[in-house]
Design a protein that fits this description.
This is Putative 3-methyladenine DNA glycosylase. Belongs to the DNA glycosylase MPG family. By secondary structure, the protein is α+β, with helices and mostly antiparallel strands. The protein has a single domain, classed as Roll (3-methyladenine DNA Glycosylase, Chain A). The protein is 11% helix and 28% strand. The chain binds a DNA duplex through strand 3, strand 4 and helix 3.
DNA sequence: CGGATGATCAACT
DNA sequence: GTTGATCATCCGC
């Protein structure tokens, strides 16, 4: 698998979020293909960076291509990848688990349904053992590894999930028809043709 | 099936 | 003191 070029994230955050669908994310050999993302930036009321730089969101204003990891609801973690525009990042919401399934199962539960192992930002972080220790860490070097697509997926866009303030902008992206999504996309989604 | 609920904490006001 | 870019479980259809 070919590693993602360093300038991959140095673009408009919506484009990066779209183009991350189909790429492979691994940590210490555990991971799979990204099938769902969301984009955030400073102009977005739903974004942690909306009110400017703070101790928590500092990574969103740090090096491009590094991780922004935060704790949510006191129980879970969420993984973002920082993009070119300061205060912008892509939330990784779901992957198709392909590598290190045994370790994923050990962390997520032996009886966990296959499709629920990494379907959601919190579940994904538990499966890949991502926590605050990885906040600010580069995605382009161990323990992380990002790889290019092996095929061009059909991509859909829709409104984001779980936000209270943000408008219903189409900033959630997913692999059309994938069984590994955290939730299906609305019926009247916008089909995105590309390439 | 779908909706409601409690868990639990770092950051923010 | 309040608030989540969530999840697993419980309850009623």
């Amino acid at each position: 698998m070919k590693p993602l070029p360093p300038d991959f994230y140095m673009r408009d955050v919506d484009l990066v979020a779209r183009d991350l669908i189909g790429t492979t994310l691994q940590i210490d050999g555990v991971g799979g293909v990204i099938v769902e993302t969301e984009s955030y930036d400073m102009a977005d009321p739903a974004s942690h960076s909306f009110a400017g730089r703070t101790p928590r969101n500092a990574a969103m204003f740090g090096p491009v291509g590094h991780a922004y990891v935060y704790r949510i609801y006191g129980l879970h973690h969420c993984l973002n990848i920082v993009c070119g525009e300061p205060g912008s990042a892509v939330l990784i919401r779901a992957i198709e688990p392909l590598y290190g399934i045994e370790r994923i199962r050990a962390r997520r539960g032996l009886a966990m349904r296959e499709r629920d192992l990494c379907a959601g930002p919190g579940r994904l972080c538990e499966a890949l053992e991502i926590d605050l220790a990885l906040d600010g860490v580069s995605l382009s070097a161990p323990p992380f590894e990002m790889a290019e697509r092996s095929e061009t997926p059909p991509i859909v866009a829709g409104p984001r999930i779980g936000i209270t303030r943000g408008a219903e902008r189409m900033r959630r992206f997913g692999w059309k028809g994938s069984p590994w999504l955290s939730r299906p996309f609305p019926k009247n989604h916008t089909a995105m043709q590309q390439y």
